[in-house]
Structure formats: C-alpha cells, structure tokens
Amino acid sequence: MPTTPTIQASTRKSQTPRMKAERGLFSFPKYWASCFDPAPFLPMSRKEMDQLGWDSCDIIIVTGDAYVDHPSFGMAVIGRTLEAQGYRVGIISQPDWRSKDDFMQLGEPNLFFGVTAGNMDSMINRYTADRKLRHDDAYTPNNEGGKRPDRAVTVYTQRCKEAYKKPVIIGGIEASLRRIAHYDYWSDKVKRSVLFDSKADMLMFGNAERPLLEMASRFAAGETIDQMQDIRGTAVIRKEPLPGWQGVNSTHVDTIGKIDPITSPYEMIEDKCAIQGEEDKQAAIDAEKAKPIVIQPFTSKTVRRKPWEKTYVLLPPYDVVRAEKTHYAHTSRILHQETNPGCARALAQRHGDRLIWINPPAFPLETEEMDAIFDLPYARVPHPSYGKAKIPAYDMIKTSVNIMRGCFGGCTFCSITEHEGRVIQSRSEESIIREIEEIRDKVPGFTGVISDLGGPTANMYKLRCKSPKAEQTCRRLSCVWPDICGHLDTDQTPTVELYKKARKVEGVKKVLIASGVRYDLAIEHPDYVRELVMHHVGGYLKIAPEHTEKSPLDKMMKPGMGTYDRFKEMFDKYTKEAGKEQFLIPYFISAHPGTKDEDMLNLALWLKERNFKLDQVQNFYPSPMANATTMYHTNKNPIHKVNHKSEVVEVPKGEIHRRLHRAFLRYHDPANWPLLRKTLIEMGKPHLIGNGPKCLVPYESRNELKGNDHKEFAKRSANKAYAKGKNAKTPKHQQGLTRFSDNQPHNLEAAKAGNKGSANANGKARKPKNKR
Question: Residue 702: which residues within 8 A CB-CB, separation 6 or more?
C-alpha cells in the first residue's frame, strides 16, 4: 500500500553567503623570526644578511626577473607576504644557471626554495610569436636579453636540487600554466606536467598567497610534503588519489551510437558520483526494503555533502592526450570548467605509473586581505645593487596602481583567467589612495601623473555576481559572452567614484587609464564612459575588438562589432563635449584559430575604410593552457562539447600563412604589397588591386618592376652559376655587359635566332652551324 510522504516545515536559510576561505590569510601562527624588523630590501647577498643580523634564510626565492621591491613584481609580493608572517626571506635574482654556485650564495634555506620564472613565461619572454629570438628583456637591467634560461622553472629547480636537499616549490605564471599535460608551441609537442620535468616537490597555481602561507606554516610546524597534499591551489605527484576521495571518470569522449553510462563531466554530479556498475546499483536497490517515506526538514545541523566536495575528475592520461587530439581538447574543456573555487573538483591525470593531483583552486582574497598585501612595506624601487641601470618593466609601472585581480571575460587567447581566476578581487578605495600617496612621496622623479589605475581590465573593479549561490556554482567560461550574464553586477559607480577621489589627491595632476577597457561593459554604464573620456584619456585610449568578423570573434569569445560601434559613438560624443582631440586605438590579432583569409581581407578593408594604419600588430601566440591554443593544436573547439565528429576549426599555421594574415593588418606597408597582390589574385579579388579608394593595394610601380627585374636576373644568374659549379667564371662574351645588352642570358635565345650571321663579341663573323 503506498505510503503518503510526511512533510515537515523547512528551516533552510534563504540567503547564501559568498564563498570564503575557512580562515583568514594572516591567521596562521607567526614564525619565531618575527622578532626581526622588516628589511629595507629582501637580501640578495650574505653581506646584506649580516647587516640584518640573520645567520640564515628560512625561505629563498629564485626568480628570473630583476628584483624590484614593488607590488607589481611577483617575487616582491610573495617575499613581503612571507616576511609579514615572520619568515626571513632571501632573493636570488637571475642566477647563472650553468652551475649550482649562484644557487648557494645565500646558504641553505631552513624551510624550502620557492622558484618562479618571473612575471612572464620564460619562453614568451625569449621568443616572438613566430618563434624568432628576442634580443631584449624588459625585466632585466638595461633591457639585456639572455639573462634567464629557456624553461626557467625547470632549470632553476634542478639547480636548487643540486645545491641543497631541500623541498622546492614552483609557482608563477610559467608553472601555473603547465600544471597538467600541455601543448608546447615551441617544440610543437604535448609535454608532461612541469612537475615531472622539473622534479619539484609541489606546484602552486594562481597568485598563491593563501596556499603559500598555509604551506609555510605547516613546514614550520614540522610537516613534510607528504603530509600536506590537500592544500587548495596546489598540485603534487602521487601514486594514487587522496584517500577518501571519490572519482568521476572522464576518459570517454562522447560519440554517436553507444550510450555511455558514466556521469558526464560537463554537468553537475550527484552526491553519489563515484563510478559504479549498473549491476551493483540494481543490487543495492533490490536489497533496500520498503519503508515509509519521510521527508526530513533541512536544518542548520543537517549534514549534506555538496556534489563537488571530496570528488575528483580523472582526466585522460598523458599518453592518450599526446597521441589523440580529440582527447586533448576534451581534457582542456574539463580543466576550464573546474576553475571556480566554489564548486571546482580536484583533477587527476596519469603520467605513466604516477599521477598529477591538482587540488581545487584557492579561494579568492577578501578586500581586507588584498589591502594587507598591498600595504606591506615595499621600497617601490629596484634593489640598490643595480645602481643606475634602467629596468624597462619597472619604468613602465612605477607610477601605476593595481586596483584589482582576476578577469571574467574568458577570452580564449588569454591565460589570465587560468592563472588569476574569474572572480574579481578588489582593493578598498582607502588602500588605493594610500598607494597613490606613497607613489607621490617615494618614487624618484614623480611628475604628478598616475600612469594607470587598472589591472587585467580597466573597468571590472568591484564587479561580481549579484547572486552568491550562482557565483559559487557557476561553470560558465565567461560572464560576458555570448551575452552579459543576468546575474552579473555591471554597475561601475564604484570605479567612477574611485577616479574622482584619485584626482583629488594632493600633488596629483593627472590620472590616466592605460589598462584595456572592456567596452561591452562600459556601454552598460554611460556615466563611466563620460568620466573616462573627459578626465582620464591622454589623447589615445586602447581597446581591443581583436577582429571584425563573426567567425574569429566567436572563437575568441569576444563581442561583435556592433558593441564597438556603440562605444565609439559614446566616446566621440563625450570627447566633443570635453572640447578635446582624442582617438581610439583598436588592437587586433592576426592568424587566430577560426580565421580564414576572407576574414583577414574584410578586416583589412575595414581598417582602410577608416584610415587606420597599424604600426604594431600581434600574430596569435599559442600560450600554454589557453583555449585558443587547444584550437590551434587540435583543430577542435573546446568552448562546446567535444567529440570525434564535433566542429573542425580552421587554423592558419605555418610561417607563410601566418605572415599573410599579418600582412593584411599592415596592408599599407609596401613590403607586404607583393604578397597581398598575389593572394588577392588567387582569391579572385583582382579588383582590389589598383589606385582607387576602394582598392586595398596599388598596382606595381615602376620602381617595383625594376626591382623585380633585378631579382629575376640575379636568380637566373645564380642558378646558372650553381649548375656550372661554385667557381664558374663569367664567359668573356658576357663580361662588362649591362642588363640592357642583347646577349644577356635572358636574351641569348632571341639573339641567336635573329643574328646568326652577325659579328660576335670579338668583331669576327660567326659561321652558322651546318644542319644535318
């Protein structure tokens, strides 16, 4: 007989609190060395350690950048944060990696080494998007290149291991983007996690202040790496998953036909998410005896595990993603969906007989914690050991202020989201104003101009999800694509108020905005655009539409050009009201996955119609772990569900094809005209060659034709000389002749045909040969 459910009143709270770490950033016990005063600069030599009264360092940070004690430089932020907890922190900056000697200059650390390649990935720092060697380095004194090795994290870690038998923790952007098997553009191969190649003990991804302080505290308490493998925001090498964690198998890529009973990794999982055979499930149901159904009320004491807690996703192993591109794209898709700290599951990926274990991301910093990080006693200048040497990266940011972290844009070619996360972490107005005053008082040669108030994006300050519950459980790749999410708070009043207060700081004449403006957000708040245009543009404003055509824009997850046009109308309107002459500077990317030759042609025509002549253009650079890099490598689109028959993405590859797309962006450069003419003819667009206003490139000029004649003659002569041998001498009858002479190589056949009885070069008559 059916039993009627007994329903009792629920006491569930309607308000969901925002996701938050269980303990504060600086709530860990301070280390015993907190009795020492903060160092003017973190020491880089034994002499400086002696001056501070230190007999040793507790933690040594090895970095590929010059040491600048400024909150825009990672080693300074990490070093000062650890120092605030009482640790004695030393810096080894840009050491000679050819031996272990430089890695021993501060002695053996009491706790561990921290290794970072620097603010930039060492490979991107060293090579252009076309894999050409750079000869400069903005993070090195005097802009000198070659001061850090390729794959600096791996090399530095190996030298630290040679120097001392101490744990090595790797972090920073280079390590963060290589935490799982990843496509390496420079070798054109799928490489293992950097943990395997470097032999490091632990990897920290993201900005990492929270996991770093927890790990340092546990080291100080006597724990080992094996005892701290569950720290959020870290990755380690293990033989098996952590005990007590349940796994979701994601190694099967969906295909048409067979229905896979395994829970889809693209959807929210239920409480019982471990892999369990259907037979076991049915047996459990049969064993369950019929009993009255009673719906229990939900109370604050009810223990209910969230679906993502103590759960990991088993990714396809390294050998599979290396060999099978569809599985690689599938893995990339899973990784990007597991980046929300509120609901992310751990990830596990087999590499041979071991696996990479990636814990869920660390929780974002609260405003008070962000303020505490930026209020630390930075000297705000390079280390004195550099003397008067110029460090271009410092000169660029010495009068700028970072007001927030994170980006919810989700652009597929950008790795900021994979490193800093999608949740915006903002500082308070008071903290930002204090930093402006410090710049005024500390930075040598300050002229009264703040060069930037921004971050990854200029206008995401204090923008977060209006629904804490949605923010905690959302797995969207972007909050603004294909449309702005209804849960997103787009009110930019806090940014406008911040700009007004910054302008009023005594001694400040001008506050500029140099960070890129997300114009699809800006048009949602006209007051912000007005404030920006009338007070904070120094003649030019950078924005990044990236392209004009729908196909590449969709692959980039960028808004359409209608949004750009609306922003330009507002920009022009407020510029006119201000009585100023100001211009928008759009940025575009060439050779991005999903871009066809026709798309680049249309972009070039758009540029010419508006008389844009771009000086600097950027070819797409496949950085590790970016979604667009997955498209580049696999020709699959990980934005949508991936299987063997899913969308094939057209990708411009090869030096010639990528150079062509770059040439379209610089259609006005005469060096690109021959290539563009040839391509336009092949595309069936010869009408775009000419001198008319709607033509993209002009006809060949007389000088170009002369140049082509010279090149063709040189080529034929070189081929003829090569055929005769490297030491072949010029025949006497050709010596001293000009290219206008009748008996040049390209005219010899005609000369022979028409002048069989004429005089030869020596004035003697040449007898015609007898014909048989």
Answer: none
Give pairs for 411-414: CB < 8 Å, separation 24+.
Answer: 411/478, 411/546, 411/556, 411/557, 411/558, 412/555, 412/556, 412/557, 412/626, 412/627, 412/628, 412/631, 412/639, 413/546, 413/556, 413/589, 413/592, 413/620, 413/621, 413/623, 413/626, 413/627, 413/628, 414/626
Picking from 133, 120, 132, 5, the residue whose alpha carbon sits closest to that of residue 65 is: 120
Task: Outline where 341-399 has alpha helix (H).
Answer: 367-374, 392-397
SS (H, E, C) 145-160: CCCCCCCHHHHHHHHH
pLDDT band at 715 (very low <50, low <70, confident <90, very high): low
Q: Quick one: tokens of 336?
A: 């990007």
Helix (H, G, I), strand (E, B) or coil at 707: helix
Using the predicted structure, report yes or no on whether residue 575 has a pLDDT greater than 70. Answer: yes
- Kindly report the three-state secondary structure assignment for every residue of 224-254: CHHHCCCCCCEEEEECCCCCCCEEEECCCCC
Q: How confident is the model at residue 276 (pLDDT cuts 50, 70, 90)?
A: very low
pLDDT value of position 711 = 60
- pTM for the complete prediction? 0.84
- Measured between alpha carbons, how far is 454 from 516 in angstroms, rounded to an integer? 8
Instruction: List, as own/partner pairs, every contact residues 382-389 make where C-beta atoms lie below 8 angstroms and the sequence separation is at least 24, other chains included.
Output: 382/66, 382/67, 382/68, 382/69, 382/141, 383/41, 383/44, 383/66, 383/67, 383/68, 383/69, 383/91, 383/93, 384/41, 385/44, 385/45, 386/66, 386/141, 389/141, 389/142
Q: Indicate the residue type of 514.
A: A
Q: Is 537 exposed, middle or buried (0-12, 13-18, 19+ CB in 10 A)?
A: buried
8 or 711: which leads in pLDDT: 711
Radius of gyration of the chain measured on its C-alpha atoms: 32
**Residues written for the chain:** 772
Over range 454-482, report the average pLDDT.
95
Residue 713's Cβ-count burial label (10 Å; 0-12, 13-18, 19+) is middle
- pLDDT tens track for 502-558: 999 999 999 999 999 999 999 999 999 999 999 999 999 989 999 999 999 999 999
Q: How sure is the predictor about 417, in pLDDT bands with cuts at 50, 70 and 90?
A: confident
Q: How far is CA 300 from CA 11, 13, 14, 61, 271, in A?
A: 8, 8, 12, 45, 19
Ramachandran angles phi, psi of 749, nearest 5°: -60, -40
Strand partners, 405: 425
Predicted confidence at residue 258, as pLDDT, reads 34
Residue 718 DSSP one-character state: H
Does the pLDDT of residue 765 top 50, yes or no? no
Per-residue tokens: 79: 């070093």
Tokens of 729: 């001498």
Measured CA distances, 599 to 544, 592, 605, 637, 679 (Å): 17, 11, 10, 18, 13
**Mode of pairing for the β-strands spanning 234-238 and 246-249:** unpaired
Question: Region 307-331: what's the mean pLDDT?
Answer: 93
Q: Which residues, in sequence order, are CB contacts of 233 under 8 Å at separation 6+?
A: 204, 205, 206, 208, 210, 211, 359, 360, 361, 362
Closest CA to 118 of 78, 167, 164, 160: 78
Per-position DSSP letters for 391-438, written without gaps between them: -HHHHHHTTEEE-EE------TT--HHHHH-SS-EE--HHHHHHHHHH
Instruction: Quote the distance between the C-alpha of residue 218 and its chain's center.
Output: 31
